[in-house]
Design brief:
Chain A is α+β, with helices and mostly antiparallel strands and 532 residues long. In chain A, 27% of the residues lie in helices and 18% in strands. Chain B has a seven-stranded parallel β-sheet, sandwiched between helices. Classes of the chains: A alpha+beta (532), B alpha/beta (434).
Chain lengths: 532, 434
């Protein structure tokens, strides 16, 4: 595209969500990303998980050609290893020039970014979550609904976590629960909102009914190894749809090095990932949606602010194993899905609103790679294999997230041009984690589930991949994400969120990006009117 | 260095020759192989074979450009016929080499490289050494260079290295004639390096290059290093006088079919005298590493060790022989994603893999970037592959349901087993950290 009105950097959920309102209004948008790999899809005829486990040549489906699923032997989410495809996530730190200390910086230079491997939990913020923000739920309501309609969210408002995850959203019917989850929900019964512990079904950006080219989930339980049907939302699919619009163009394989402004034009200096050749792009308005870490780097670089640490918000997380003795010895289900079966909310005492709860997800252990489970258990591998055979059908894996008030990470730009991230948590986090674990264990016990001793493990900061808050709205950026001191340079990804509650924030990033996109449309239209 | 494009190789089916050809092809050279019978299955591009043997006069076709092959730049002559009783000047190797050299010169080949030996001397104890010396003298012209090759080891176990390798691997006791003699080892890859450089070097400053370590070591020490690398640390090497061995062989000659070791070789060891090679190697720009390093980096040895490691780990994880395809994938995974080097497993674990349970490391933090513990990583790798196999998945994923009682009993047994091994694992883990 020769003379775009707007360049959007990044093809993940944020980039796509800022692009849609622009493109719909006829604005000429050039989207660029640093994708150096073609999008990976598992074979369309891949059998469901239970059949794969009996398949004589399951190797290829599980391990991939060239055994790419065997890289990164240890790491946060197994899904990065198994679902992303060859080379996914490799080189992310090196190409983005990110160095870390006590921090796991995770990302992918792939069309669609991390939405290729995300867990697809899609819940909205509630009013309290906006404490510290210059905007309110009312500013995002329209955007939440529009995103939900566009991407398809399945779930229900009719259980204890329904209101918590947002009301009035268009929802597709929820996917059926596994035996373990069904049992826990039944044991939970009904509770009202004032309850200290709430359990319910999570909202997922997963289709239970088809939308356009994307098919509904076929319940093959193999989500951890990628979804060939497009049921799990992947913003790469939206890039394909955007490409069909006249005023949209996409160029992949470009890694942005710096952004410069002269008079009313922004010049983007990029490098072709494959050849190393320089590429220069110009536009009067630029939106950064490359993900918190790269976007922060580009803004700091543009402003020339080296050695100036900024707080980087993460949602400190921990994992645990939950055992349901009542289901011991049952068969594993042949049908189902591999994403979070249940979600829960547990109040944190003596905490400010928005940061006064932990949010957790429960997965069926039988849908996860057994090797990752075994690597966490203190038993020997041989014993562990025998153990899992007996235990797997009654085992769930829990992920518990804490609000960003407990994170103490810092990010800064060094003079060399590298980004340095130092991870940390607050000094009282260990205590709070311990208390929460004990409280949760009690709540689960009432539901017939036991937290296995020794299974509670905190994540390294960053491994949970919830990054935000480096360029907060109303401070380093305006309430529309425009960078202070850089007119027409916007940031629309997690960098601009002011705080991270314990709940997942991807849908909010998308809604905020949509809002920012609309505000840019409004500005361009006004400018056009004033000129003519 | 003048780039060479096409080399002719004799002796390409032998130990050094086969490595040389593989290397030359990998570097993009065209190779014409002259040998007694066509050895290669399938013909790689850029390799053509002509049937030939010493002392047949080589036709000009060997050297000419044709069928996409450029004209030959260099001839590397490695073939040697061992049996022979004639007087040295009439030996088939001498006559044949001269004929070959004559033909090469007629066809304007730029360089002849003759594979000789450090034992090449007029008064060598073995016939081999005297033959090599004679050929060296006869070849003395500016376009012919002589490579005096030392004790070659590493790579595919063929030729003399193959014999040594097999003896060390299978015998508990090995009598070593000439134990104290100084040998000059060189890895077969280093020999190939040297030969190719000799084929290409412009303005060579000497006629004879020693492709051998400039730091001689006793023969017995060489054997010990090799046996360590193969994992036979306990082998007993017994120095024995050369004269005794020769006497024994003379006696045994009476018994037909009992010729284990060539007398020639023994005489060769007896007559070893180290040669100066430092400046030769400097001029060629090659560095020869220690035998320990050479074997540690040896692709073939590593592969064998990895296969053994894969079998042991597979046996441990599956509780029985792993299915076909496991070991292959394990080795591939280690080579692609975990450095490609074997880890050190104690001999007990290799022989009785069930005992790996006692050294199975305890888990580290949930998302340690890369655990330092090699065994931990390999077990993780093995488990991922196990899970991806039908047999392994069958162990873990139960879609029928075994029932409550059966599960409970199973859990109790596992708990007992784990309780038993946990203290040992803790102790072993602490030892590891020290």
């Amino acid at each position: 595209m020769n003379a775009p009105d707007v360049i959007v950097i990044g093809s993940g959920p944020a980039g796509v969500s800022v692009a849609w309102p622009l493109v719909t209004a006829g604005v000429r948008v050039l989207m660029i990303d640093a994708a150096n790999l073609p999008p990976y899809l598992p074979a369309p005829d891949r059998p469901p998980l239970f059949a794969l486990h009996r398949h004589p040549s399951a190797w290829t489906h599980f391990l991939g050609k060239d055994l790419f699923a065997l890289r990164q032997l240890a790491g946060g989410s197994p899904k990065l290893r198994t679902a992303g495809g060859p080379g996914f996530g490799d080189d992310y730190r090196q190409l983005n020039r990110i160095r870390t200390r006590n921090f796991d910086a995770v990302g992918a230079l792939s069309e669609g970014g991390l939405s290729n491997v995300w867990g697809a939990v899609a819940c909205a913020f509630r009013n309290e979550d906006f404490s510290g923000y210059p905007i309110d739920l009312v500013d995002l309501e329209r955007s939440y609904r529009s995103i939900a309609e566009r991407i398809g969210i399945s779930g229900t408002e009719d259980d204890a976590m329904g209101v918590f995850q947002g009301t009035g959203m268009p929802l597709q019917p929820p996917l059926p629960l596994s035996p373990c989850a069904t049992r826990m929900i039944a044991a939970f019964g009904t509770h009202d909102e004032s309850s200290d512990f709430l359990l319910g079904r999570p909202r997922h950006a997963v289709l239970s009914a088809p939308i356009g080219d994307r098919q509904a989930c076929t319940l093959d339980r193999a989500c951890m190894w990628g979804c060939a049907r497009g049921a799990i939302y992947n913003s790469a699919d939206e890039v394909s749809r955007l490409r069909r619009q006249e005023t949209f163009a996409h160029q992949g394989g470009l890694l942005v090095q710096s952004i410069r402004r002269r008079e009313n034009t922004y010049t983007i200096h990029a490098r072709e990932v494959s050849s190393g050749n320089e590429a220069i792009l110009k536009a009067p308005l630029v939106v950064l949606a490359a993900g918190t870490l790269p976007s922060t780097r580009l803004v700091l670089e543009h402003a020339g602010k080296t050695d100036m640490p900024l707080p980087l918000l993460t949602a400190p997380a921990m994992a645990l194993a939950l055992w349901l003795p009542a289901l011991l010895g049952r068969a594993l289900p042949g049908e189902g899905y591999g994403l979070a079966q249940l979600c829960f909310r547990k109040r944190l005492p003596n905490s400010p609103p928005g940061a006064d709860y932990t949010f957790g997800l429960l997965y069926d252990a039988g849908t996860m790679p057994a090797s990752d489970l075994l690597s966490r258990l203190a038993v020997s591998r041989r014993g562990g294999i025998a153990l899992l055979r007996r235990l797997l059908s009654s085992l769930m894996v829990g992920l518990v997230y804490f609000p960003s008030t407990y994170s103490r990470n810092r990010i800064w730009l060094e003079k060399s041009g590298d980004i340095m991230i130092e991870g940390g948590v607050s000094s009282d986090f260990a205590k709070v984690m311990g208390q929460t674990t004990r409280n949760l264990a009690r709540s689960f016990c009432k539901l017939g589930a036991i937290v296995l001793p020794g299974s509670v493990k905190p994540f390294t900061p960053g491994a949970e991949v919830h990054y935000a808050g480096t360029l907060p709205m109303g401070a380093l950026t305006s309430r529309y994400g425009e960078v202070e001191g850089a007119p027409n340079l916007f940031v629309a990804d997690g960098s601009v969120l002011n705080a991270l509650p314990a709940r997942h924030h991807t849908l909010t990033i998308m809604a905020n990006a949509d809002r920012i996109g609309r505000s840019i449309v409004y500005r361009l239209q006004r400018r056009h009117e004033l000129c003519s | 260095m003048q780039p060479i494009k096409h080399i002719i190789v004799t002796g390409g089916t032998g130990y050094i020759g086969s490595h040389l050809i593989r290397r030359a092809l990998a570097e993009g050279l065209y190779v014409t192989l002259l040998c007694r019978k066509a050895p290669w299955n399938g013909s790689p591009d850029r390799l053509r074979t002509f049937l030939w043997q010493l002392p047949d006069p080589p036709p000009d076709a060997f050297f000419a450009a044709s069928d996409g092959f450029p004209s030959a730049d260099a001839l590397i002559h490695l073939s040697h016929q061992w049996d022979g009783n004639e007087s040295i000047p009439e030996d088939i190797n001498v006559i044949g080499t001269m004929a070959l050299a004559g033909a090469a010169r007629r066809n304007e080949i730029r360089r002849i490289v003759f594979g000789s030996s450090v034992s090449a001397r007029a008064d060598a104890l073995n016939r081999y050494g005297r033959i090599k010396w004679t050929i060296e003298q006869a070849l003395a012209t500016p376009d012919a260079l002589v490579a005096r090759i030392g004790l070659v080891y590493g790579g595919t176990p063929l030729g003399q290295w193959g014999k040594i390798f097999r003896l060390l691997r299978s015998l508990p006791i090995l009598p070593v004639p000439g134990a104290g003699k100084s040998v000059q080892p060189i890895h077969v890859d280093e020999v190939c390096d040297g030969l190719l450089r000799m084929a290409a070097i412009e303005d060579p400053r000497r006629a004879i290059y020693g492709l051998a370590s400039s730091v001689p070591i006793p023969f017995e020490r060489f054997l010990r290093i090799v046996s360590h690398s193969i994992g036979r640390r306990g082998i007993l090497l017994v120095p024995i006088a050369v004269s005794s061995v020769l006497l024994a062989l003379k006696i045994l000659r009476v018994v037909p079919f009992l010729r284990v070791i060539d007398e020639e070789r023994i005489r060769g060891i007896a007559g070893i005298r180290p040669i100066e090679t430092r400046s030769d190697l400097e001029e060629l720009g090659i560095h020869i590493g220690s035998v320990t390093d050479g074997l540690a980096n040896d692709g073939l040895l590593n592969r064998r060790r990895l296969v053994a490691e894969g079998r042991a780990i597979g046996r441990y994880l599956f509780g029985q022989r792993p299915p076909m395809g496991f070991v292959k994938r394990y080795v591939k995974a280690v080579c692609h994603h975990d450095g490609g080097r074997p880890i050190h497993l104690p001999a007990l674990a290799m022989g009785w893999p069930a005992t790996i349970r006692f050294i199975d490391p305890l888990p580290v933090r949930i998302d340690a970037e890369h655990t330092d513990n090699g065994l931990q990583r390999r077990l993780q790798l093995g488990t991922i592959i196990l899970e991806a196999s039908r047999e392994g998945a069958g162990f873990i994923f139960d879609y029928e349901g075994i029932g409550l009682i059966s599960a409970l009993l199973g859990l109790l047994m596992i708990a007992a087993g784990e309780a038993f091994s946990l203290p040992i694992r803790l102790i072993m883990g602490r030892q590891d950290r020290q």
